[in-house]
Amino acid sequence: MRGTVPRVVATEAALKLIEKLEAEHGPLMFHQSGGCCDGSSPMCYPRDDFQLGNQDVLLGEIGGCPFYMGRPQYEYWKHTQLIIDVVPGRGGMFSLEGPEGMRFLTRSRVFTEEELALLEQDQNP
How far is CA 98 from CA 19, 22, 45, 46, 62, in A? Predict the structure, then answer.
């Protein structure tokens, strides 16, 4: 029963905003910010505009868009499922949703013991 526990999911509201942004900007990608200027927000970029590093981890996809996080932050959050939502407000200054009056927001929940076991199986085929 491999691949049944996604590390990242999106709410319907987030999926609608992703669809709108993709219609305007083309293929998108997300990177969970590790702090600094924009706090720890999920940042949305045109797919070819963000340079990934060798420390970035692909968590999965939301709305068909790859979602990455830096390895040090992943090590801290790997026991949780990220739930990407949207709320009113301004997003990160470099994130595409800024002009929409909405911003992406990361919520999370701790994986159950059963889910963690499935994830471990996925990592060790």
Answer: 15, 14, 11, 13, 19
Distances (CA, A) of 102 to 28, 48, 110: 17, 23, 26
What DSSP state is assigned to residue 38? G
Which pTM value belongs to this model? 0.89
CATH topology for 8-117? Hypothetical Protein Aq_1857; Chain: A; (2.60.300)
pLDDT tens series, the chain, 125 aa: 345 799 999 999 999 999 999 999 999 999 996 655 445 689 999 998 988 999 999 999 999 999 999 998 899 889 999 999 999 987 667 889 988 889 999 999 999 999 999 998 877 54
Residue whose tokens read 């009113």 = 88
Closest CA to 83 of 32, 9, 16, 15: 9
The residues that bridge with 80 in the sheet, in sequence order, are: 110
